[in-house]
Design a protein that fits this description.
By secondary structure, this protein is an alpha+beta fold. Helix content is about 40%, strand content about 20%. Helix 1 packs antiparallel against helix 3 and helix 1 packs across helix 5.
């Protein structure tokens, strides 16, 4: 897929987020299916392959919404999904990561994305690696920042 194709797909997701914002504010499931999973696929994660992406991955301290898996099946990144516009405490997700030795956590409402280095020995606010917003940031900036996933 060319960079132009990727840019166009980010623009399409942004347009979908604008058009159906009310739907996504009311439904985490709609947000996951229509914004989060397509964005993960855009980054090369096959959301339909449980060898790559596993929803509701069991951990000792709960179930993150998604686990992005390494080739050997170990979780590389946990993703926490929320309905559009909803902010929640990330401490729960960090505890999932720490209990499983997972170095990264992504918090998203499908529009705003934040990536945290959960194993860094710092306060949560200082663990933030990068963030982007598909409605506010230019598509090329979204792509540049998102390739850390």
């Amino acid at each position: 897929m060319s960079i132009d194709d990727l840019t166009r797909r980010v623009e399409e997701l942004a347009e979908r987020a604008r058009k159906y914002a009310d739907v996504f504010r009311r439904s985490e499931a709609a947000t996951r299916v229509s914004l989060i999973e397509p964005f993960l696929r855009l980054l090369g994660w096959n959301t339909e392959d449980p060898a790559q992406v596993r929803p509701e991955f069991p951990t000792q301290s709960g179930r993150p919404d998604y686990a992005l898996l390494e080739k050997d099946g170990r979780p590389l990144i946990f993703v926490g999904a929320k309905p559009y516009g909803r902010q929640e405490d990330h401490a729960q997700y960090v505890s999932y990561c720490v209990s499983e030795g997972v170095g990264y956590f992504v918090a998203t409402d499908g529009v705003q994305w934040e990536v945290y280095n959960t194993l860094a020995p710092k306060p949560l606010q200082e663990k933030l690696v990068t963030r982007w917003d598909i409605l506010e940031d230019p598509p090329m900036e979204v792509l540049r920042k998102s390739f850390v996933i």
